[in-house]
Amino acid sequence: MQRLKDLVNRVVPEGPFKEVLRYVHHRATRNGGIDVAYDLGKSCYRVTFPDGPLQGQQVLFPRESIVPLLGMGVEIPPYFTKPFAEGALVIDAGAYPGEFAVLASRMVGSGVVVALEPDPVNRAYLQKVLDLNGVDVASLELALSDGVGKKQLVLNGVESQIVNPDYRRNGSELVDVRTITLDSLTAEARTASKPIVVKMDIEGHELEAFRGASETIAYGAQFIVAAYHRVAGEQTYCALSSLLREEGYKVELVNQPHVTLIARKS
Q1: What is the CA radius of gyration of the chain?
Q2: If we measure between CA atoms, which residue out of 71, 91, 249 comes closest to residue 183?
Q3: d(Cα 20, Cα 66) in Å, to the nearest integer?
Q4: In this structure, what are the phi and psi dihedrals at residue 223, rounded to the nearest 5 degrees?
């Protein structure tokens, strides 16, 4: 299945046909876990989480595409297995399509949610989701990385990613995007002794992002990371688990095979 997915990414250009192929792939490989209905009054999709830690929660999505909703019922609930503290700063890196930011904003009360999405098309969709749900979330067209500057981003729809050593040109467009470090984003919250929660789903760039997070790690932020991506043949949760345990974190790996790493200070 992975070889077929790689072949499609190389030879099929972005567009409606590729979205249909993504839909078929997700339906063939993932369970539901959400209820999706079309809201005629608001002309949008209404996603309801019927059970688990998000039971009863609803998120609205623009009607332009159903593809961003695929796999959501499998991927999103594990992010919320641990409660977020009232007043926390929540960083959502790789925020597209926006469901995590919407849900987190409802859980932190007076806290602040900052959503990062470097892909300009995906960021525009993200903003529509935030507006549609009426939440107060700051969305920034930035990529989380190991320094403040610029890197190249592969534009690949739901799987846009920063160029890494494993990247092989497949015809997708490359664009320069601005980068920022986690430490720079959390400096003010650390000074004010606020709780910090960091969620990452950044398509294999997790290791670089953690290189820019030494002060945030030392501070004791809570981490929730989609860590199933492979870099140099190894899933990123392997290196991240070792790093965080050495820093005194308790690490849990949930939601196999879509591995989600949850780390909190012991």
Answers
A1: 18
A2: 91
A3: 10
A4: -115, 140
Residue (of 96, 98, 100) closest to 108 by Cα position:
100
| 122: its two tokens | 């995906």
> How is residue 46 written in tokens?
């209404």
User: Could you give the CA distance from residue 106 to residue 102 in angstroms, rounded to a whole number?
Assistant: 7
My answer on whether omega of the bond before 257 falls inside 30° of 0, hence cis, is: yes
Q: What is the helix (H) or strand (E) element at residue 264, kind and residue range?
A: strand 260-265
Residue 152 has what pLDDT?
82
* Residue 227 identity: A
pLDDT in tens, 184-199: 999 999 999 999 999 9
Residue-level pLDDT at 67 = 79
**Distance, first Cα to last Cα, the chain:** 38
Instruction: Tell me the β-bridge partners of 140.
Output: 116
Alpha helices in the chain (DSSP H): 2-11, 16-29, 72-75, 99-105, 120-133, 182-191, 206-211, 214-219, 236-246
Instruction: For the chain, count helices (H), then strands (E).
Output: 9, 16
CA–CA separation, 114 and 137 (whole Å)? 6
Instruction: Outline where DSSP puts E strands in 70-221.
Output: 89-93, 112-116, 138-140, 143-144, 149-154, 161-162, 174-180, 196-200
SS3 state at 174: strand
In the predicted structure, residue 162 carries a pLDDT above the cut 80: no
Task: Identify whether the C-beta of residue 144 lies closer than 8 Å to the C-beta of residue 122.
Answer: no
Give the domain ranges of the chain: 70-265
Question: Looking at the domain 70-265, which fold is it?
Answer: Rossmann fold (3.40.50)
**pLDDT score of 27:** 47
Mean pLDDT of 234-244: 94
> What does the pLDDT look like over 82-121, one tens digit per residue?
889 999 999 999 999 999 999 999 999 999 999 999 999 9
What's the rounded Cα separation, in Å, for the pair 29 and 110? 39
